[in-house]
Every structure is written in C-alpha cells, then in structure tokens.
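Input chain follows. Return structure tokens only.
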Amino acid sequence: MKIEKLTDNKIRVIINSDELECKNINLHSIMTKAIETQEIFSDILKKAEKEVDFYTDGCKLLIEAFSSLEDVIVFTITKFLPENNVKKKKLIAKRKSFDKMTEQAICCFRDFDTFCEFCNAIKNIHKIDYSKLAKHTILYLWQDSYYLVLKNINTKHENISLLYSIFSEFGKVLSFSNSFECKLLEHGETIIKKNAIDIGIKYF
C-alpha cells in the first residue's frame, strides 16, 4: 500500500490487488458491499494518519475507486468539514466514468503548480510509461489557466484510463477542437512547446 498526500484535504492510495485478496475484497465488492469493506478503509485511514498526517476525525469522506490495471487499485480520499459541526463520518464510494478516448485531447489546470502536481503524480506511479502515452504534448497559458494539449494519443496504451483518472484529479479534460487550439496559438503563451509532461516530470 502506498499513500500520497495530494493536498491538506486529499490523499491518493495505491493498493496491489494481492493486498485486497488477503482480505477477500476486490474492486467489485468495494463498489457494491460497503459494509464488508469498512475494515480496509479503516486500515487506510489509520495508516494515512501515521504516514502523512491525514486526520479525518469529525469529517465527511468522499472515496473514489479506480482500476485500469489488473493488479492495481487507486483510491482518492477527500475529506470535508461537516455541516453544523456534525462529527459522524460518512463514507461514500463512487466509481469514476470516462468518455471514450480520442487521439487528441486538452486538459485545463487552474495554475502552474497544479500542472506540476499532476506531473509528480504520474512520476510516482512507476507502472506508467508516460513517454508512450502521447507523441506530442504542449503546455499553453491563456486567461490565467494552463492548457495541456495532447496529440497522437496512444488510445491502446494499457494505462490510458489511469492517465485520464489522474487528469480528473488535478484538472478538467476538454474536448479537442481545431478552433480552440488556434485560439491558444493566437492568444495564448506557449510555456512548454514540446514534451510538456516529460519536462514537467524532470524539472518541476
């Protein structure tokens, strides 16, 4: 089990399926049998307190589960301050869904630091060969937001769904259009004109 602190209110947990099998739990049971999976979430939260100072007492929790590999399950856990000082924890498990991937896409990040956090997240998941996910990646700045343009995406890459899952945690995936790309070229500022993800991982 690997725990990464994304923000003060959010962590990512990467678990090998063998760890879940020891408890007779799989992704399907997590999504359909919340009562039976309380133990694994309790173990995760205790470990998160010790390793990354992620305390959830008195907070509501949103738990998102995703798996794009046969042997890895990724949980994203977000905590929220309760309304009216209610101190009872509430666990909600939700499966993320993604539209069918195309060979071109755009992801919008609210600032450069968030783009760097995205690159760091990909770097820490060692199973992703990010250099083979897309042939061309360019980063633009326009109207105070950062836009990562991906072209020639390898839609058959085994980790493409996991890439989009990480996109959704740090930014917003937009439908690609030639007109919007032209707008970025004409009115935006090119921040990284080639291999944007690779450069972000290496230098930021």
